[in-house]
Amino acid sequence: MPVTTVAAGEWLERARALKEEGWWLMDLCGLDALQLGHENRFQVVCQLLHSERKERQTVHVDATGEPPSLPSVIEVWPTVDFMEREAYDMFGITFEGHPNLTRILMPDEWEGHPLRKDYGVGKVAIEFIAQPYVQIDSPLQSPKPREAGVRTDVLGQTAKADPPAEEVTS
After folding, report:
1. What CATH number was assigned to the domain covering residues 3-96?
2. Phi, psi torsion values for 83, nearest 5 degrees
């Protein structure tokens, strides 16, 4: 699968040319290349599909500036709407010309962009809650072969079974 890199200023024209050649945009996501040795820290990675030729290609678009930005391709591929909003929400990459560049996953009052590699870990306390046992409604529902066919209690848990009898081989 070919991989190409496009500068932010060339992206809109390159996207139009790709569309005319028959390429469909299948996915767009942000990339934080902090500590990866890239010239630009932020990129947008696009996965394209050519249905007639049965080919795929990947296009990396450098997002430059602060905040990182590049032109929106929503006029070329309208389905990119939510993908660009997700890259904005998670990485802070702005898309110039996007008609509704607002948060899509995080609450509006959220500060920062959680998929940036320098985003503080542990800002939100997470409460871990013990999960219940697998509930079994009938004896044959168990995913474990040893439990298939054994009794269940009123809570749907497998009842303590007698240990299996040892097989006698002659």
Report:
1. 3.30.460.80
2. -65, -40
Cβ proximity of 95 and 13 under 8 Å: no
Residue 121 has φ and ψ, to the nearest 5°, of -85, 140
pLDDT above 70: residue 118: yes
Q: What is the CA radius of gyration of the chain?
A: 26
pTM: 0.69
* Range with the poorest average pLDDT among 40-44, 85-89, 128-132: 128-132
Sequence spans of domains, the chain: 3-96
Which of 99, 96, 17, 90 lies closest to 59, judged by CA?
17
User: Do the Cβ atoms of 116 and 68 come closer than 8 Å?
Assistant: no
Long-range contacts of 156-164 (CB under 8 A, 24+ apart): 157/133
